[in-house]
Amino acid sequence: MLAALGTEPRLRILYHLLRAHPAGMVAGEIHLKLGMQPSAVSHHLEKLRFQHLVDVRREGTFQRYTANPRVLEDLLSFLVSQCCADTRVVSAESVLPACGFLAAPPKAKPARRTAQPASGAPRRERG
After folding, report:
1. For the packed helices 38-50 and 27-34, what is the interaxial angle rounded to 10 degrees?
2. Is the pLDDT of residue 35 over 60?
3. Which residue, 22, 29, 115, 119, shows the most beta carbons closer than 10 Å to its own?
4. Which residues on neighbouring strands pair with residue 62, listed in sequence order?
5. Lowest model confidence (mean pLDDT) among 6-10, 50-54, 66-70, 107-111
6. At 5, phi and psi to the nearest 5?
7. Closest by alpha carbon to 33, among 16, 20, 9, 50?
8. Do 115 and 123 contact (CB within 8 A), yes or no?
């Protein structure tokens, strides 16, 4: 699977399919978007499909390709779990921001408000 992702054209194809998810794209749209020859796009799509990274369905004379999120989730889960497991070489906290997950800052406690008289004048303490 990593070999299928190991070329720039396939990464670019997957990038565009992820952005077009869930509708996907037909091969002709992909080759126009990337400026690649149709035969090259078909070759790379077949490599991605063989690894189940993309799904394909026929629509008349066209084939519509979509990214397969389940396989991508499994791959990412495996990579993160192995990078972070036991060795602590890579921390999960350093990886998650790439996915848009940032640690939420601690919530500040609301400031305590003291009651003010209706007139707006500060209260006097009795003593």
Report:
1. 120
2. yes
3. 29
4. 59
5. 107-111
6. -90, -5
7. 16
8. yes
Single-letter residue type at 24 = G
Its pTM stands at 0.70
Tokens representing residue 6 in the block: 């190991």
Which residue in the block uniquely carries the two structure tokens 């400031």?
Answer: 111
Q: Are 19 and 30 in contact (CB under 8 A)?
A: no
> Beta-carbon neighbour count of residue 47 at 10 Å?
19
Structure tokens at 15: 């990038």
Owner of token pair 């799509």: 45
* E strand or H helix at 25: strand 25-26
- Name the 3-class secondary structure at 11: helix
pLDDT digits (tens, 9 = 90+) for 77-105: 888 777 767 677 777 677 777 777 655 44
